[in-house]
Amino acid sequence: MTSLADDYLDLDSLFSPEELALRDRVRAFVKARIKPHIEEWYEAAHFPLEIVKELGELGVLGMHLEGYGCPGRSAVEYGLAALELEAGDSGLRTFVSVQGSLAMSAIRHFGSEEHKQKWLPGMAAGELIGCFGLTEPTAGSDPASMLTTARRDGEEWVLDGHKRWIGLASVADVAVIWAKTEDGVIRGFVVPTSTPGFTATPIQHKLSMRASIQCDVDLVDVRLPAGAVLPDVTGLKGPFSCLNEARYGIMWGAMGAARDSYEAARDYALERTQFGQPLASFQLTQQKLVDMVLELQKGVLVALQTGRLKDAGRLRPEQISFGKLNNVREAIAICREARTVIGGNGVTLDHSPLRHASNLESVRTYEGTDEVHTLIMGRAVTGIQAFT
Ligand code: TGC
Predict the structure, then answer these.
(1) Is 90 close to ligand 1, i.e. is its CB under 6 Å away?
(2) Is this model's pTM higher than 0.85 or not?
(3) Was domain 237-382 assigned CATH 1.20.140.10?
(4) What percentage of the chain carries pLDDT values higher than 70?
(5) Does domain 11-124 have CATH number 3.10.129.10?
(6) Whose CA is nearest to atom 5 of ligand 1?
């Protein structure tokens, strides 16, 4: 029987044996390959390229996609994997999201047969890395205002512009770049990063997501063959459909960071004594731990219901906003509160909660800020758009 301290409402009973087996495999990987090194990677601002192939072997790259070497797992299984990976660190879960939910999803759903054959098997195996270029220095929440252009020059496409906050771009083999064509329509382009004119520069001095890479990307006269364009989508619904996948994974992942922080605080409170007794014996500490359990369990239920809707083909983008907004917001609160239980020691890398909280500042901002998701939900509830 699961302990109330670990799984208060016995949420494990809501998952199938196959789902739990997958979850346990990813949890064991995180314990063996991420947790022993994460403080060092985080302090050194090091993304562990060395484990990318292992993530491929684990079957978590493009794991919800079918065919072309992709694992073809369910949405709930993908969510459970995201949760376990983010219990290690948001930077590692972000890599899996960028690779699978963004770059691979774009190619799988909107690419030509040639794109799929060329890129997807290697990306699923972790032999090739992809990135996804939507955000720009002056176009974050409002990607419709992007300035990157794509013009025809004979048979070729020529891309010019700048992208910012692009995960993994400096180590990627291929980039999916969104750009505005001369008739004002946004299209996606599959760009090998070795193409002349493509430059990716890692952003320095980050206080968040330090075990991950985010880049500025410059596109200067990047010449591509006619077949580089994603043939099966035009307009913003292309990148937004990929963002749906990433936002979905985030709602699960955030609960992983929260769980790890709760466990760190609970264990510390049981061991650490002050005033002659364990911290866990004080009423104020118990209240903190109980509040964490409440929101953690509720957040997993939100993610699970969203996942079941997704697997049933009934999930609406507005429902993804519910989970992304709620779960990241509550996860940050849990991580911050967990840090207070650990006191002064909690501001060092010896304990995970402040690292997780700091990472989640990025998570609450990318793939739609709290404000964007609030207004998506506000529009759904009232029928009135309040973005501008
Ligand atoms: P609107 O102009 O009305 O819609 C444009 C078209 O898109 C369709 N659409 C969606 N389709 C699928 N899924 C969704 N979630 C969709 N949302 C909109 C829409 O139906 C329309 O289609 P069509 O056929 O009529 O043209 O746009 P909107 O008013 O619905 O959206 C406004 C707003 C603010 C919600 C939207 O712009 C938004 O979501 N903004 C946030 C953008 C965002 O999340 N950016 C973060 C990107 S992260 C990144 O670039 C870095 S990658 C991560 C990394 O590398 O680490």
Answers:
(1) no
(2) yes
(3) yes
(4) 100
(5) no
(6) 236
